[in-house]
């Protein structure tokens, strides 16, 4: 009898251990997420540019969050819907003419091709999204201190370990959504409403602003909970990317469990800010044709 109880206890402990391994890390669970319609089946990557964060969803559930570096003001990462179109390991970087000119202006040695290795700005892997002519992709870096931030020529940099983890997880055809949401509304597991506001790095008109007041008023009516307007005003003014509970009695409240985006923008057809033109935004390209062929053989 005692042996059966001990076996049952060990089984419960084993289940708890498995659950702990499968649980979303606390830092990721408490990261505010943009309001984007997520694919219910399969993998879906969501990049929110003002936040400099990449969200990986599996079957509609958040699996992981990566810090990233995205395009600078003059070389913006374009928004839109894309697919993963290639995974290339140990890529060579064929330097665009525009970046060669930039090297020359800055008094740096002009490079045309950077071979695989520790000095390659693409790092150990390049995960292309969109058509090849766009030259867009998620990749590693030889400058890990630049992540997160707004530093690239349009591509999306990850720290090398994260880039490899991403490449080992995604496949060709997986969905990619690049969003530009500076205002995030999320609910925690206690039902409290959190507002997070980011800087408008690309100086775009924010199409969500006219809907914010109506959304907050509707939430108040539905939940019969008064929101703290001064906290809303402060968050919009400071734009420091810190989640603020606008429904909690205490201004120092902590997030309870995971944050989930409030569906307020995904239900609307909002005008989107225009990306920079190709002339304004030279982008770091993927591997050359020969490298693509070799990488395609490796990745299947």
TrEMBL record:
The active site is at 139 (proton donor/acceptor), 155 (nucleophile). PROSITE patterns: LD_TPASE. Residues 269-300 are annotated as: Disordered. Residues 1-28 form the signal peptide. GO terms for biological process: cell wall organization; peptidoglycan-protein cross-linking; regulation of cell shape. Pfam families: YkuD (PF03734). Belongs to the YkuD family. PANTHER family: L,D-TRANSPEPTIDASE (PTHR30582), L,D-TRANSPEPTIDASE ERFK_SRFK-RELATED (PTHR30582:SF24). This is L,D-transpeptidase.
